[in-house]
Amino acid sequence: CRGLGVVYKRPGHAGGDNGSGTPAGPRPRPVWDGLPLYDTTVAPGVRYAFAIGLPDTGLFPFQAWRRLVARELRVAALGTGDYTEPAGLPGLRAAITRHYGVTRGLRAAPDDVVVTQGAQQAIDLVGRVLIEPGTVVAMEDPGYPPARHAFTSMGARVVGVPVDESGIVVDALPDSARLVYVTPSHQFPLGVAMSPKRRAALLAWACRHDAVIVEDDYDSELRFTDRPLQPMHSVDRSGRVVYIGTFSKTMFPALRLGFLVAPSSLRTALRTAKQLCDWHTDVVSQAALARFIDEGLLARHIRRAARHYARRRELVLAWLRTQAPGLVTMPGSAGLHVTALVGAGADLDVASTVARASAAGVIVRSVAPFCIDTPVREGIMLGYGGIGTDRIASGLRQLEAALRGGPA
Known about the structure:
Blueprint lengths: L6 E3 L27 E3 L8 E2 L12 H12 L1 H4 L11 H14 L9 E4 L1 H13 L5 E6 L3 H9 L3 E8 L2 E2 L8 E6 L13 H13 L3 E5 L24 E6 L11 E4 L2 H15 L4 H12 L2 H27 L3 E3 L7 E6 L7 H10 L2 E2 L1 E2 L12 E5 L5 H15 L5
Parallel strand pairs: 3-14, 5-6, 5-8, 8-9, 9-10
Antiparallel strand pairs: 1-2, 4-11, 6-7, 10-11, 12-13, 13-16, 15-16
Helix pairs in contact: 1-8, 3-8, 4-5, 4-7, 9-11, 10-11
């Protein structure tokens, strides 16, 4: 669930009770008692879901996608139907390097690519290969919780590092960190882009400390006011960066297709980890995606969808500028949500605002749950991918009432 348009739930336990309130039967390692299960559904009755990380599936060309999938389901296309390469179909890996070479300036060869079940599996594979119990992992704070929880489940000690308008504060990185997870092109959840100077400083830091940088290129292709920033991976000359991408936003989340680009020193281990995890990603979807890219359908869809999202984004930004006193919009020009922090001296209770809005059928997210160690940042996140353009204005009027403390 990229972006987390979700509600946190504590893990539940099936089975009986031993009389002491503890479920009977085998118990997981203690770390699993503290990790949440995410509910990605939108509750019935929600009229205005400004959910985070959800694209508008109504914009996707499903007719063309069905044609490509049907083609790959033929026996002639499937061949023997045997297991295939853990790293993914060669045709898809080549298509990924061509597409991202043009759209993102990514410098990679097909052999560098491992196809995954979305970005989350890519994060998991990197952790399996690099993390031992006690390994220090540094993450942006606030940051992306499923990455933090994946690393924690593997025994890592996750340390939050503050983020400012230029990205992660490199001077605040702990010397003991051996892995640094960042979202430099569109920081989650604040939306800022890491500056070139800060990127160079992070790469230099990783070289000095023998650390690996995991570059999650979150929302990278959905950019509205300038060209996408070149990935850190493309300027890395020391093999320190693992690049992670996904098709969940540019296509649709249910597809579960993503990828990572690995340094040569980690390539074999990551392929082995993928094989041990699930052997390989669904072959039919891989082959259809390769054709979808090579026929120009992905690039065409992204251009069309970005025009719709740009209009929605401008509606949200205009409302924040004129009708949301006390909220300061974070800089950024990409993605499917806008973040606004509570300004200095503003008297705004975000938790109460979110609750009042929810009672009126308006779903927005607070920034606070994404914080790790540094002081909590108070603010709200407004997603515009999963709500129609024609519903945004009325939803924002309801939210304005909630902000002012009255009935929405």
